Amino acid sequence: MPQPAKTELTVQGIAASQGIAYGQIFVYIQTDVEVPSYQVEADKRIEEVSRFDRALVVTRQQISKIKNEVEKNIGPEEALIFDAHLMVLEDQALIGETIREFEATGCNIETCFNKVSARYIKAFAEIDDEYLRERAGDIRDVAQRVLQNLLGQAENSLSRLADKRIVVASDISPSDSASVDRSAALALVTDTGSKTSHAVIVARSMKMPAVVGVRDLTKRARNGDWAIVDGYDGVVILNPSESTLFRYGKIQERKKSFEARLLEANRQAAVTLDGVAVALMANIEKVDEVSQVKAYCAEGVGLYRTEYLFLNAARIPTEQEQFLAYKEVAESLAPLPVIIRTLDLGGDKPMAGNPDLFPKENNPFMGFRAIRFCLEHQGIFKDQLRAILRASAHGTVRVMYPMISGSEELLRANIVLGECMVELKSRGVAFDEKLQVGAMIEIPSAAMTADILAKDCAFFSIGTNDLIQYLLAIDRVNDRIAHLYEPTHPAVVRTLKYIVDEAHKRGVPVSVCGEMAGDPVFAPLLLGLGVDGLSMSPTWVPSVKYIVRAMTMADARALAAEALTLESPKEIYARCDAFYRARVKVE
């Protein structure tokens, strides 16, 4: 008897890697290693530590093999993902704490390692910054491999898919995502995750569609179900009808044509139809991202997040280690500007290897972090400032302080910077004596005193992620209230306008480096409000440049003027979306 036709079901997620795929689903179930717990006899404890050492060596060999395969099959830059994994295996704090836990408790080494690594994973998982929060996956993935090797279990893998399939999983570990069978995997879909997960990075490098954050899809889908994965709009359609299949075939043709136009436009200057040049810069975390800055034709780095150097280290990096990293970026991009943000550590971004520096707080988003942490730990702050100053002799470097709440903090930070300049002069070390100093405007108090802060700043950079969060009292990583996080809220639009106007009165340029800057729907609004430049993930530059080249600045100003009169976030968003669609024909 024939089976009844399955009903078409559309599920919304987050678009992570562009493209459209159609095929059958393979539901990948990945379970954590079950760790037995028992006491190790005293005369066998030396052998237990040796067993741990051997597991670390085997794990290192496995990851090095994966890295080599990724470098061969995908590319050297994508293989750099696994440097972070190898660094976990070299983390003396993690290894040392495991040994100390074993010596103190006498429990088997699997139990000790599992306990210590879980603490590190938790610390990273609670970090506010999305990119850094995803690095908890590095530690989790490595920990699972070490435990598998200690217990003599076979490693999980997606390297042997039986046929061409759309891979659906609750989450996909970095090593599994790298070992995906490229000849058989059509797309990646996960219940959890974000745009910065390793699975997404690998999917993009393989030009494979990916959608993340599709909640509970693993419970709705079955092996063999047919589906469409739309990596443009973040949609997964289970059991698509004939009419849906036909419609998506046409969409795919138009999307490919549009992508070609984007890349062509990206080779041109970011100039509006009425001749206004717009600075489009890149946000980076690591030195190796400089190649992306160049590949996507960004006009320098508008935000160099320096926390990565600290969060992936068992100890605080020295002045020299920081200098070498900053110098490499500055030299590689010279004469383009590189804006280095000082440490945004603390509170929800602790260093796992230095937990004593970051006592637990009830409200870490408003706690002891960023410039507050630096001003209390001036030894760490001065090492970084001297490193930045020294790098300024090798390119166009600027420095920017995060989380400034008022003029007193700005003054104190500048005093410390001045002391560092005096120290370097006394040592005869070269640096840019006219180094430009700016502030992140991401706290309402800073926004409302922009006129005062502008007296002592060469530039402002608006961090819209935090500014929106604080203005609207929305924890942006809380799923229950994430829908209230609205970049087009009238309070946000009016605050942005106020910051820009007050800065411009004093000749201070303003850029935006939050997620709004990289969204081509919001870019015209920001530019219309008077923002001088936008800084974003390098891969977003072509989309933003395309809308810049398709509009006039006069029209953008009219859009902003209208937005300032509207009372509803939805109304403002609708105007922005209509503005974008009228100028960019995607479909």
**Number of helical segments?**
25
**How many separate domains make up the residues?**
3
In CATH, the topology of the largest domain is named: TIM Barrel
Number of strands: 16
Top CATH class of the largest domain: Alpha Beta
Structure characterization notes:
By secondary structure, the chain is α/β, with parallel strands linked by helices. It is built from 25 helices and 16 strands. It has three domains: 9-30 and 157-243, Glucose Oxidase, domain 1; 42-151, PtsI, HPr-binding domain (Enzyme I, Chain A, domain 2, Orthogonal Bundle), CATH 1.10.274; 262-583, TIM Barrel (Alpha-Beta Barrel). Strand 12 (396-401), helix 17 and strand 13 form a beta-alpha-beta unit. The model has no long low-confidence stretch (mean pLDDT 85). 47% of the residues lie in helices and 13% in strands. The chain is globular and about 75 Å long. Helix 16 packs across helix 17 (407-426). Strands 1-8-7-3-4-5-6-2 form an eight-stranded mixed β-sheet. The chain has an eight-stranded parallel β-barrel with strand order 9-10-11-12-13-14-15-16, surrounded by five helices.
